[in-house]
Amino acid sequence: MKLFIAIKPNTEVNQAIYQQISPLIKKYPWFELTDPNNYHITLQYIGETDKKKEIILYLKDLVKKYKSFYLFTRGMAMFSKQQLTIYVNFYREKIVEQIANELALQEGNFFPHLTVARTKISSKQQYFALQKRLAQMKIEGQIDVSKIYLSNSRTNQGKLEYEEIESFKLLK
């Protein structure tokens, strides 16, 4: 199992985000879109493991320390690894940073983001044009974070699928 711990927006938020990015989709129809039903904010990618039971026990304890909170959308941006990842970013929220730091398997700066598309850009000119367009986009919305989720990531016929294993309710 390839496990990860995430925050999942509700269906209304997913649809609102999708509607707000639709001008981008029309402009760049070759983007590989994330299905809105799969939108999530990864708190920690664990990867291939057989320690599901231990992780579940750990998360049951972890959620006892934190109250529900909100994440507010900020805009859009991208980062590049093997391909470009286009995402919605969020304003900083101390609680989500604390949770992510407590879950961290490796050092690094956590920034909450929700991937909406992936693509390859063929030229620097296209890259900078897309970067400018994303910087101008404002995405409005908020996520009521009352649970965190342990999920499994798998590929089915070349498409990523996410299976919810268990949810863990934060304090009210």
From TrEMBL:
It catalyses: a 3'-end 2',3'-cyclophospho-ribonucleotide-RNA + H2O = a 3'-end 2'-phospho-ribonucleotide-RNA + H(+). One of its GO terms (molecular function) is 2',3'-cyclic-nucleotide 3'-phosphodiesterase activity. It holds the Pfam family 2_5_RNA_ligase2. A motif (HXTX 1) lies at residues 40-43. Keywords: Hydrolase. Transmembrane segments: none annotated. A motif (HXTX 2) lies at residues 113-116. Belongs to the 2H phosphoesterase superfamily. ThpR family. Hydrolyzes RNA 2',3'-cyclic phosphodiester to an RNA 2'-phosphomonoester. PANTHER family: RNA 2',3'-CYCLIC PHOSPHODIESTERASE. This is RNA 2',3'-cyclic phosphodiesterase.
